[in-house]
Amino acid sequence: MARKIQPDETFETLRDEVDFTVARLEDEPLAAALVARTAEWQTRSDATEQTARAVQREATRVDAARQGGNEALDNASTHFGDNLLSAVNKDRTSARWRGFYRTTVSDFNRKPLGEQAAAVRGWLTDSQDPVLLAEKEPLETATVRVERATVRENALASRRGDLWQAREALAAFLTMERDTLHDDLSAIARSQKLPRSWPSSFFRTGDTPPKKPTPVVPPG
């Protein structure tokens, strides 16, 4: 029997599986008429791979956007913190300082990016501190960059979920099609009194090829 296709296999492995079967059918006079039934295999594999590449490109762009936003927000926060520290005479215990930073600016910048951006958004919304107002533009610009990247990251999570479903559907489709082809080849083998191993020779045999690292993961 043809082995079961798994949804997390690389597209390189899927191409090899399909190409091997197509080539084997084309080379076999008794089975050449069955080649046409494999056309959709590669079409669906290519379409799913194209979707996967688009998701991976967006993931890279989101990572870059988050990195850029993080750098900008850290820099803006550091500049604001330096000026605020001067304004409070370096007294990090003052209520004015602690209204923005519990300890140091470095500690604030090490917070998860989402928490950091949410805190700065709160400052910009609620505070009228004169130092903050003087630094408002770079803080606002950096915060908006992070917020945009977060929106894209949330949308990417949905796309990854859709991609995983597409990969599951592709794996199920290829498995079913290969099983059906094996049945048809078995019928030919019986009619031609060929060995029982003949139908399986149209599929790669042995262990499943090692899976390469992939960014695609099941949702949740």
What does this structure look like?
- It is a single chain.
- Helix 1 runs antiparallel to helix 2, helix 2 runs antiparallel to helix 7 and helix 5 packs antiparallel against helix 7.
- The chain has 220 residues and is mainly α.
- It has seven helices and no strands.
- The two termini are 33 Å apart.
- It has one domain.
- The protein is 68% helix and 0% strand.
Low-confidence stretches: 207-215
- In oligomeric terms, what are we looking at? single chain
Can you summarize the main beta sheet? Answer: none
In total, the number of strands is 0
User: How many helices does DSSP assign?
Assistant: 7
Report the order of strands and helices: HHHHHHH
Tell me the radius of gyration.
29 Å
Approximate shape: rod-shaped
Report the helical percentage.
55-70%
Strand content: under 5%
Average of pLDDT: 92
How far is it from the N-terminal to the C-terminal residue, by CA? Answer: 33 Å
Work out the count of structural domains.
Answer: 1
Broad structural category: mainly alpha
